[in-house]
Amino acid sequence: MKIFVTRKIPEPGLKLLRKHHEIELNPHGRVLTKEEIIKGVKGKDGLLCLLTDSIDRKVIESEPNLKMIASYAVGYNNIDVKAATKRGIPVSNTPGVLTDATSDMTWALLFSVARRIVEADKFTRAGKFKGWAPMLMHGQDVTNRTLGVVGAGRIGTAVALKSKGFNMNVLYVDEKKNETLEKEVNAKKVTFNELLKKSDFISLHVPLMPSTHHLIGEKELNMMKRNAVLINTSRGPVVDEQALIFALKEKQIFGAGLDVYEHEPEITGELKKLDNAVLQPHSASATIESRTKMAIMAAENMVAGLKGEIPNNCVNKEVFKER
Fold this sequence. Notes:
single chain; globular
C-alpha cells in the first residue's frame, strides 16, 4: 500500500514503513499547506502526520481510499477525529514514550525561570558580571515550596513524582483521584482556585479542548502569588497569551516558562522581549530516544491499521465495531 508522510521523522520509523509499504515523504523541510497535504494524500492508503498539520474534514474526504491516519504526537486536536470515524478511518497517536522527556523539560523550564538562568547567561556573556554581589540575580527557592499540577495524567504525574527530591508540597487538579501521587508524594487533590492561590509553581498538563481554552487568563493570573512561576508544556491556547504578557510586564507573577504558544509558530514580539519569560521552540519531547520511539510507534500503528488490525494507540476504536 502507499503512505504519505508529511514530514521527515527519525529513520527507524521510516525504515519500518518501507519494510511493509511504499512511502512518499514530504521533500520540504517545512510544514505543508493544506493544499500540499491534499495533493500528497491523493492515491494513498495511509497518512502519517504531525501535530503541526491540520487534518480536517476536507483533507480526510479528499482521498476515498484513505484507510489509516497515524499521528506522530500525543495530542490529536489537529485531526478531525469525528470526520475520520464517520469514514471508518482509524486514528492513532503516540502516548507514553515522551512522558519522561516532557516532564524533564518541565523541570528544566521551572529551574530556568526560578533561578533566572537565561537572563543570567545573557548578563554574563555581555560582560556585565563584575564579581559576586549580595543583590545580584535573586531568584526563587524550589526546595520545600508548593508545586501545583493542573492535569494529573501521565506527564503531570511524572512531573509531580520528580518533585520528591526537592521535598515539595504537591497540589493537583484532575477529574480523578490520583492514588499514585497521593501515596508517593503525599499530594492533595484541590480545587482549581485553591491551587492557583497556594502554589509557588504551576505546571499545566491538560489537553486542548473547549473547556481548557484560555484556562489561564487575566482572572486566574490575578489569583496567583506574586512570586508564582507558570510553566506550560501542554498546548499554547490553554493560556491567554496577552493576559500572560501583561502579568509578566507588571510583575503580577515572577515568571513563566513556555514550550508552546497560542498562535504557534508565531510568538508575540512582546513576549520575546521579557526577561522573566523562558521560551522553548515546542521541543519538550525532543530527545533522540523519545523522538525515535515516537517514530517507531507511529509506524507500528500505521502498519497495524493498514492490515485491518486495531493499532495499539487507536483513539477511535469504535470504527472497528462498525465493521
